[in-house]
Write the structure tokens for this entry.
Amino acid sequence: MKYFFALITAALLFLPSPGMAEIRKIIAEGTYTMGDGETPLVAESRALLQAKKKAIELAGTYVESYTKVNKIMLTKDEIRVVASGLMEVEILDKRRSIIGDGIKFWVRIKATVNPDNMADMAEIVKDKSVTDDYHAMQAAYEKSRHEIAELKKELATVRGGSEKKRLKERIVRAERWFQAQDWLEQGKYHLLNRNHDDALVSASVAILLNPNDPDAYVTRGVAYMDRGQQDEAIADFTRAIDLHPKAVIAYYNRGCSYYRNSAFEEAAKDYTQAISLRPDNAEAFVSRGRTFHKLGKEREALSDFRRACAMGSEKGCTKQQAMVQEAGEVPENGRSNDTRNKVKSPSGKKTYFYGQRYDSLNPLGTEQSSVHNP
């Protein structure tokens, strides 16, 4: 009898419970027909992208179910980003076949979704800029797909040699843009998963393919920043600002790098610029408040924490409360003689936000073509 109960107990221990992580494996397929002027490498990448989109839809269903069971509150948009960030993709099979005047590419993938990091990923995507960035990238891909389709139709009807050459050149540029975006997306995926070395490599390739994309420099800059290479990060954020003077994310992240370099005056200037461009950015107020505190400007720091708290920032409220409780009354001149220990230093968590895209859909609402015409 004791042996029987021991078996039952062991069996119960190994039964899956609602809280146990279950790895989900998804099979998906994608196709793309390559036309005149296109290259096999990019055509295969487009087929792979279609397969990934299908896998993300299926993975999203699993993520939604898991988060409900574990009481993690996510919106539909956040679920898609989490699903995308958690997926590890393996190509199972790929084929090419002749269809009329084109070549059809077919890809089958296996996407593995491991929920072990789902809670951390869910916390990251709570930053609205992450979901905004994801949507902007998907919109850019769709715009590129539509423009390529139109160029292929136009190319099929053209008879003149010079016009054909011009259209093929536009298709080549469009493909190069697509390749750059593909590498950039990989870089962002690695950032979400905190693989900063891989993010650095992917963003660098994206820059080689499209050296005029501010977002690629920001992505590489974030990778440098988290590797502790602040000078390199500042150089990349500065290049992004040169390319797009209203790039909020570049000012904000450059401020973070200056802060980590203890260049607090420069950090405060960049945070102020980020706030002027986007006054509803609570994170920038928190970061500027920390910087003012380092500079001994207690009254300004408290004001920034209060504004962030009023916007719903938990960190802003925490910092405000800490200043009131630990520092007591702020001196009349708004400054403190010893500011080093009154407010705790920033935690080890990331202080940057991933931000918006500037090559196709920028935060100002100005739409630009993802296929650059001559």
